Amino acid sequence: MDNLFDYLKWMGDFPIEATGFLEADAMVFGVLSYIDMDPVFAAIDDEITLSDCLKMIERDQVKVMLSAKGEDYTGFLRLAAESRRFGELRMSDYVDVFLSDPPVQFCAVSFHDAHDRTFLVFRGTDTSLAGWREDFMISFTRTRAQTQALAYANAHVDPARKCWLIGHSKGGNEALFAAANLRDSKWDAVEHVYILDGPGLCPDVLDLSGMARVNEKATHIVPTFSIVGKLFAADLTDTRIVQSSASGFGQHNVITWGIDHGKPAYAEENDPTSLWVNSTVDGWLSDISQEDRVVLVDDLFDALAAGGAEHLDEFDEGGLAGVEKIVRRMRDSSETTHKLIRDLPRHAVKQSIQNIREKLKGEEKEPETASAEA
Fold this sequence. Notes:
single chain, 3-stranded antiparallel β-sheet, disordered C terminus
């Protein structure tokens, strides 16, 4: 199976105006959004092409953090920047906001071509505990990142240009929220919305009346093993499943998604294990009040921070001592959290029994179908 690196090699010579915007282009933007461009935009006045950005990095004029362990983001950036398809796109309006208390992690950037197209790209969660805490908060409140995404879209969707909203993971949720709540005067400029394995909008918290118009212009792409993208999953007509070279939760990373002859390598169905996890979590969350969700999230992330960690990758460095602090803190958490955690295995068993029953029913129907055909 080919990948996005191959896509850049094959399609790199063709500008977007020659082929139109393709689904794999949205995936490329999803990967590029994780490159920390803060040092680049701190060194320029207004905008910069992706090609010139690469030159600044190679001349050591700026140091740019390339996110994700084990993935060749440097090579990916180089391929994109050296291509006709992406290299001459102008980047502007880079925003990167991070706060620990209250938790806010928001990043967005706009790409423009010479043919009145603008691509607003929202970054997903980084490795910070604040970013992940804010992810969990979508279950009980409108987050500050969602509010900032809407403000960004209202400011940068230009009625005189065709605009795309694109986001991966948390960024997909932000793109969805922005699209659903965008000013009516801006909506006609939106060509399409791409949600790349991003969670939907929690119906217990947000007004979903704007989803009807979004459905007409949106595509939700999830890998075969999807957990994040199934949380409060948006009921979008155009929802697709893509293959990945990774296994398990590693499939969440867009850079692992497959390509087949220049198009996403789509699959027929999700992995059964991920569907079981999704059903278990959905059933568990449906039994938890919004007030209890607040308590659970506070207890969980206070415990994770108990050892002094601020990023997920710091837990590897802390070893057993760090794990012990987390366990000790969770042991001392509220009775509400203890009960909610105890209830999770019950939901897992309940869902397993339901799956077995559905499978047995399916097997009972097969002989009837066969005899009817005979």
